[in-house]
Amino acid sequence: MSLDVDVRLDRESFSLDVALSAAPGEVVAVLGPNGAGKSTLLGILSGLLRPDAGHVRVGDQTVTDVGAGVFVPAHRRGVGLLAQQALLFPHMTAEANVAFGPRAQGVPKREAEARARALLADVLPDVPGLPGRKPAQLSGGQQQRVALARAIAPEPGLLLLDEPLAALDVDAAPAMRSLLRRVIRDGKQTAVLVTHSALDALVLADRVVVLGRGRVVEQGPTREVLGRPRSAFTARIAGLDLIPGVREAGVLRTGDGTMIAGRETGGPAGTGEPAVAVFPPSAVAVFAEEPHGSPRNVLPVRLASIEPRGDVVRLRAAPREGGPEWLDGLAADVTPAAVADLAAEPGSALWFAVKATEVEIHPAG
Ligand code: ADP
Ligand code: MG
């Protein structure tokens, strides 16, 4: 279902003023630092918080309209919520947890249980006896998968996800990210995903809304906003180097034909599908002369700026004369000593090099 929001909420030292919309089946990521108002926004959408002004519409139902005095309670909004913590009912089995929503909607017991088992088999295919287990008999990552099944079991018109990967350890997060991609994105579930991770937004969302201090700073298609941030604020949040292109057997091919080698993530994707190559600026080595030898991606750039950042110096690239535009803004974090060795200044021709093992190639958009 579609989503249409325009709300304001005032607290003593914080105000939220946000308008956003989502088309049916669209996944919108809300990206922003701590305290930006992301959870407050989700609270307003889910019906846990009343805004001071504005409206929320889900499909053709108005669930909040301050002016008209409309406030549909949370459980009658057809909105599912997946929080950071799984928050399963501890005394119930996994199956009963997942069947709970459909049962509350009046789905007959047998049918609700069958739906629960099918969903559990989908999100956790290889855990024997899963339906009969209680949450305490599952790992954190497994509980979060059960919580996902529970959130989608009532077939909500809108699914809200509040940092669903934040509480998972580094081993569990990638698999959960892939599962979310399959269930949410590929399943055409309209969703609002709150995250402070640019990677989650890239892998999961069609569009991104960047929130800062309760205001929308930037919004648009995910790859555009994060790949070419218009504000330093967004660039800082994105915090990653990102090159858009399409997949081709083990590499990413950019619009101008450059091949970027990396590790493919997020399961199999066909040749020609949109993808992004992502790596941290700390993985970029910078050279004054073209490096040869060990296999890596070597990109000819022009130095655009030098920004001190604590212990490191961030070098920002721009394309050389006639070079591809995706080089614009690419960042490399190097030591002050390395900058001195390079004797580089804005305008200098440099080479940015990044090993294929440091580059992740993700399906996107
Ligand atoms: P985020 O989820 O983006 O980290 P929140 O929406 O939780 O941000 O918080 C936005 C602002 O509102 C913060 O300044 C936070 O301190 C404040 N805040 C959050 N919850 C409450 C509350 N229940 N009462 C008062 N202030 C709150
Ligand atoms: Mg929050």
Automatic annotation (TrEMBL):
ABC transporter domain sequence ranges: 7-238
UniProt entry keywords in alphabetical sequence: ATP-binding, Molybdenum, Nucleotide-binding, Transport
The Mop domain covers which part of the protein? Answer: 292-363
User: Which domain of life does this protein belong to?
Assistant: Bacteria
| Protein name per the record | ABC transporter ATP-binding protein
Which Pfam family is one of those matched by this entry? ABC_tran
GO BP annotations of the record are: molybdate ion transport
A GO molecular function held by the record? ATP binding
Q: Which InterPro entries match?
A: AAA+_ATPase (IPR003593), ABC_SmlMolc_Importer (IPR050093), ABC_transporter-like_ATP-bd (IPR003439), ABC_transporter-like_CS (IPR017871), Mo/tungstate-bd_C_term_dom (IPR008995), Mop_domain (IPR004606), P-loop_NTPase (IPR027417), Transp-assoc_OB_typ1 (IPR005116)
Q: Which organism is it from?
A: Pseudonocardia halophobica
ATP-binding: is it a keyword of this entry?
Answer: yes
